[in-house]
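Final report, closing paragraph on structural work. Over the funding period we assembled a curated collection of sequence-structure pairs, and we close with a single example.
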Amino acid sequence: MNILHMISRQPLRTILGAALAVAVPTTAIGVSSSPAFAQQDNLERAAQALRAIGTMQADFTQTDRMGRSTSGQMTLKRPGKIRFEYGTDDALLVVSNGRSLYLVDYEVDQVQRWPIRNSPLGALLDPERDIKRYGKTVPTNDPAVISIEVRDPKRPEFGHITLIFVRNPSAPGGFELTHWVALDAQNHRTTVRLRNHRYGMTVADSAFSFKDPRKSSRRPR
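Its predicted structure, as stored:
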């Protein structure tokens, strides 16, 4: 069965958590005794890597907590804009126009909206949610890997996200975002891995609009 047929019956907030959350096995991260100042340096490196991205496209593979996978293309334009376009067989779209994050399900003609600051991807999208303010490093055994967990302790209902960067001299800021780790308030998580990164292309703002499937409004959002 197509994954969209499996998840489209779930509440939309659950789908969003599943679509945008990421899990990293503890065996891949490990434990390190790096000193606090080195961890702070890593937090700064990760923040610089995000700030250095103007536009980016990458292929992604999404695997939910049940091991079901789907794939598509991600387009990012900072600040605040992102689009997850799933394969042609999937009727699901996740898109942010810089203010709100939308989950659009064309199979059931539904749209759900969240302010980007309230979404699992707020750490990646919201210009006011600086990872240096809300983030902390997760120790790794590999100096070429940086893991940053971002959560707002005052708003646990937003869940948390852990961004994983790998050293790459050709990437903006010298580190490449390869996947991220997010867990929603319902404890749902999924792995989204990026590959085939491309940077610096021209992306029109219209790429972050969508055709509203609801019968009452067919206007592009």
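The chain has a mean pLDDT of 77. Helices lie at 3-7, 12-20, 26-29, 36-51, 122-125, 131-134. We thank the funder for supporting this effort.
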